[in-house]
Amino acid sequence: MIITFVSGTAFADTIKVSVNGLVCAFCARGIEKTFKKISAVSNIDVDLENKLVTIITKPSEKLDDQTVTKLITDSGYQVTNIVRGK
Fold it and tell me: Cα–Cα 20 to 30 A to 22, which of 33, 47, 70, 86?
């Protein structure tokens, strides 16, 4: 009998969002604060140089594209692409 244990991060989603309008550290902090309020979010990283927001959800938690887009556009930015991975 083989038993395999999988760490919780294996079930977490990584969401990479390309965003227009991110130009400064103030922009990054605003996005980070917005997503840290969402219970499904485990970690968030804003890469200003590449205009990329990377969101990692908690294991077994979901965050749909519509919610991600709304949170970013409500913050004053434009979503150009969303890519999901594990």
Answer: 86
Band of pLDDT at residue 7, cut at 50, 70 and 90: very low
* Structural domain boundaries in the chain: 8-85
Which sign, positive or negative, has the C-alpha torsion 85, 64, 56, 80?
positive
Domain 8-85 annotated CATH 3.40.50.2000: no
Backbone angles phi, psi at 61, to 5 degrees: -100, 150
Rounded to the nearest 10°, the torsion over CA 32, 38, 39, 40 is -80
| Measured distance CA(58)–CA(21) in Å, rounded | 27
pTM of the predicted model as reported, rounded to 2 decimal places? 0.83
HSE toward the beta carbon, residue 41, CA cutoff 13 A: 20
Which residue do the tokens 């309020």 mark? 37
